[in-house]
Design brief:
Radius of gyration: 28 Å
Order of helices and strands: HEEHEEHHHEEEEEEEEHEEEEEEEH
Strand content: 15-25%
Number of strands: 19
Strand order of the largest sheet: 9-8-17-16-11-12
Number of helices: 7
Largest sheet: 6 strands, mixed
Shape: globular
Helix content: 10-25%
Length: 354
C-alpha cells in the first residue's frame, strides 16, 4: 500500500474515490492554468529578443556579403579596364542625367545579361533604353546585391501609370568629403569615386585598404537638391543644414534610383559621421535629411557639393567596404576626423581603418 501511494502521479492527475466508490481524476484548476499561461508568456517574452537578435545578425552578415560582392566587382572593373568606375558616366548630349557607377559594375557582379540591355550612350530615361526592357527599362529592376536585407522600404518608385519606374539601393559610393565635382576645372572631389573621372589605382596615395569605397545608405531619404546657396566649405554642424533647404525638397526623394549617377541617389559624403541625424522640420515633422547643390550633369553647370550621410538599419553602426575589397562595420561614434580621413583617397592622413 505504501509503495502504490508513493507512485501516485502529480496532483493534477491524482486519483480519488467518490461516494459511490468510483475512481475519479482531477484536472488543472483555473488558477493553475493561468499560472502556466503566465509562465509560458514570460518564457516567450524572454526568447523573442534572442530570436530577433539572431535574425538581425543574419541580416547584417548578408549585408556584409553584398558589400564584399560589390568590392570584388570594383576591383575586377579596375583589373579589366585599368581604372575604377566613375560615380557618374557621361552620356551623349548635355544636361542629361548620368548613369551610375553601380550600373557600370554590373558585368563584374553577375549582371552581364542586364548590362547588355543598356545603351549607355543614351540616358536611362530615354525611350530607347525603356524599349530594351519595357516598360521603364532596367531602372525599374531590383538589383539584389544593392539592397540590404534590413531595408524596410525596399519597393519600387511607381510612375503615373502605376508601373515600377525606379528601384532604390542601400550601398552608396564614396564621392568625397563635401565637394563632389567641379565642372569648370574638371576637378574631382577627394573621395574614392568621382563623376566623369577614370581614377587609376595610383591616385589612391592613402592606400586602398585605408580608403572607403562604399557604405550603407537608406532608401527614400528626405533631401533638397540644386541648392545654389550652399557654402563652399563643409558644414561643421548638422543643425546648420536646415537653413539651406531652400529648393528641390522631397520627403522621399533620395537614394531611390540605382541607375542615376548623382550622389543624392547612389553615393554618400563624409561631411558627417555615420548615422548622424541632420534635422529639418517641414509641417511639424522632423526629417533626417541630405542636401546637394547643383547635381552632377545639371545645366547650367555648377560645382556639386553635398552633405549625404551614410545611414544604416543595423543600429549604431554602418557596414562599409574599402577599396581593397575588405568589409568592416564602423560605429557611429567614430571620430569625424578619422571618418573624413578614411573617405579621402590621397589626403595623406595618418589614420588606421577600424
Amino acid at each position: 500500500m505504501h509503495i502504490s501511494l508513493f507512485l501516485l502521479p502529480a496532483r493534477s492527475m491524482a486519483c480519488s474515490r467518490d461516494g459511490s466508490g468510483r475512481v475519479t481524476r482531477r484536472g488543472f484548476t483555473l488558477v493553475e492554468l493561468l499560472v502556466v499561461i503566465a509562465i509560458v508568456a514570460t518564457l516567450i517574452g524572454m526568447l523573442l529578443p534572442a530570436v530577433q537578435s539572431a535574425r538581425e545578425a543574419a541580416r547584417r552578415s548578408s549585408c556584409q556579403n553584398n558589400l564584399r560582392q560589390l568590392g570584388l566587382a570594383t576591383l575586377n572593373h579596375e583589373n579589366a579596364k585599368q581604372h575604377f568606375p566613375p560615380s557618374a558616366l557621361a552620356v551623349s548630349g548635355s544636361g542629361n542625367a548620368p548613369w551610375s557607377g553601380q550600373a557600370a559594375m554590373l558585368p563584374f557582379m553577375e549582371g552581364d545579361n542586364l548590362f547588355r540591355r543598356i545603351d549607355f550612350t543614351k540616358p536611362y530615361g530615354d525611350q530607347a533604353n525603356k524599349d530594351l526592357s519595357p516598360p521603364n527599362g532596367v531602372a525599374a529592376m531590383r538589383i539584389d546585391a544593392l539592397v540590404c536585407p534590413s531595408e524596410t522600404n525596399a519597393s519600387a518608385v511607381i510612375d503615373t501609370a502605376g508601373l515600377p519606374k525606379h528601384f532604390p539601393l542601400n550601398y552608396g559610393l564614396n564621392t568625397g568629403e563635401y565637394l563632389v565635382y567641379d565642372p569648370v576645372t574638371k576637378a574631382p572631389g577627394s573621395g574614392a569615386f568621382a563623376p566623369f573621372s577614370r581614377l587609376k589605382a595610383s591616385r589612391y596615395a592613402d592606400g586602398l585598404s585605408k580608403t572607403l569605397a562604399m557604405a550603407e545608405v537608406k532608401a527614400f531619404t528626405p533631401r533638397a537638391q540644386d541648392v545654389t546657396t550652399l557654402p563652399e566649405t563643409a558644414f561643421t554642424s548638422p543643425g546648420d543644414v536646415s537653413g539651406f533647404m531652400t529648393s528641390g525638397w522631397s520627403a522621399v526623394g533620395g537614394h531611390t534610383e540605382w541607375v542615376c549617377g548623382r550622389t543624392l541617389h547612389i553615393g554618400f559624403t563624409t561631411t558627417f559621421a555615420p548615422n548622424t541625424r541632420v534635422p529639418h522640420v517641414v509641417g511639424g515633422t522632423t526629417y533626417d535629411v541630405d542636401i546637394s547643390s547643383t547635381r552632377e550633369g545639371v545645366l547650367p553647370a555648377g560645382p556639386t557639393r553635398a552633405a549625404v550621410t551614410s545611414r544604416s538599419h543595423h543600429g549604431d553602426l554602418v557596414n562599409a567596404s574599402f577599396m581593397d575589397g575588405s568589409v568592416r562595420s564602423i560605429t557611429s561614434d567614430i571620430d569625424l576626423t578619422v571618418w573624413r580621413g578614411l573617405g579621402s583617397r590621397a589626403g595623406g592622413e595618418t589614420v588606421s581603418a577600424p
